[in-house]
Amino acid sequence: MLLSYHTKDKIEAGCDEAGRGCLAGPVFAAAVILPPDFESELLNDSKKLNEKQRYLLRELVQEQAISWAVAQVEAEEIDEINILNASFLAMHRAIEKLDKTPELLLIDGPRFNPFGKTPFHCIVKGDGKYLSIAAASILAKTYRDDFMKKAHAGYPVYGWNRNKGYPTKSHKMAIIEHGLSTLHRKTFNYQLQLKLDL
């Protein structure tokens, strides 16, 4: 069972991102404030769950959360500020959209750019330790998957309905054959990655 909170009697928002390692599409992030009595034996790091479980949990989180929000940073912005800063920016945008102000932020991962003066804790593999971060990972992952499934209709050659923009071999081979789309991140080192697959 994941932990309900880090600091008792604080309004905590768990934050996580999805799509940082992708070749195409935005990076998404979510921020979630759960009630202190929230319980779920299934809720965990989104990578440890199947698609059906993730979407069931998304409904549960959205129904029971005190506040939740999802935000994104587009590929063009990622190219301008780099993927690490884009991940932090997506989290900032999600936090800004919350309709309740958090007193403490729980961030998945080892680094974060401060959000104003709000205290925060960076927690490595936090999505497998705290319910609020796991909830954020579920929302970020499923909303990003929804985006890439819709994008697939306009760019079917890349197989985004299957790979969701991640660097699978078939995705990279499609780039070799068809070039980059408008949704691909242009600053990624494609030459090196594509050589590895040849």
Mean pLDDT: 94
Name the CATH superfamily assignment. Ribonuclease H-like superfamily/Ribonuclease H
Query: How many E strands?
Result: 5
Structural class by sheet pairing and helices: alpha/beta
How far the N terminus sits from the C terminus, by CA atoms, comes to 44 Å
Q: In what range is the share of β-strand residues?
A: 15-25%
CATH topology: Nucleotidyltransferase, domain 5
Summed up, the helix count is 7
Strand order of the largest sheet: 3-2-1-4-5
> Which outline best applies?
globular
CATH C-level category? Alpha Beta
Helix content: 40-55%
CATH architecture: 2-Layer Sandwich
The string of secondary-structure elements, in order, is: EEHEHHEEHHHH
Query: Which regions have little confidence, pLDDT < 50, spanning 5+ residues?
Result: none
Cα-atom radius of gyration: 17 Å
Describe the protein.
With 198 residues, the chain is an alpha/beta fold. It has a single domain, classed as Nucleotidyltransferase, domain 5. It contains 7 helices and 5 strands. The chain has a 5-stranded mixed sheet with strand order 3-2-1-4-5, sandwiched between helices. Strand 1 and strand 2 form a beta hairpin. Helix 1 packs across helix 4, helix 2 packs across helix 3 and helix 6 packs across helix 7. The mean pLDDT is 94.
Briefly summarize what is shown:
The chain contains seven helices and five strands, in the order ββαβααββαααα.
